[in-house]
Amino acid sequence: MPRAAVDPIRAAATKSLRQAAGRWLKAGREAAGLTQAELAERVGMRYYTFVSQVESGLGRVPIEMQGAWALAVGLDPAHFARTLLAYYEPELNRLLFGDAAQILPDAQRAFGT
């Protein structure tokens, strides 16, 4: 089955949400007093550049690493995962939990961003 054409408006919204997630993650790392290299080491990554890519919005925290990442920055893993779900998959978040916009302001307040 052929893939649908990329919707430029949706692509821009996805990029914007990834960048917002990256800012939230960076604020969490900084609030925990960690460098990118220290966070990478704590979550078992070989290269700190992956943290940089995630914080810039170019990558995502893999699901299997979300618990370790949350603990490394001192957050409840469930809250951390749900917040990332709101950023990374807003429609799924809405289907599961209602209005996705409800969690994002809370996520931003978690680190004063």
TrEMBL record:
Coiled coil: none annotated. CDD domains: HTH_XRE (cd00093). Residues 25-80 form the HTH cro/C1-type domain. InterPro entries: Cro/C1-type_HTH, Lambda_DNA-bd_dom_sf. This is Helix-turn-helix domain-containing protein. It comes from Phenylobacterium ferrooxidans. The lineage of its organism: Bacteria, Pseudomonadati, Pseudomonadota, Alphaproteobacteria, Caulobacterales.
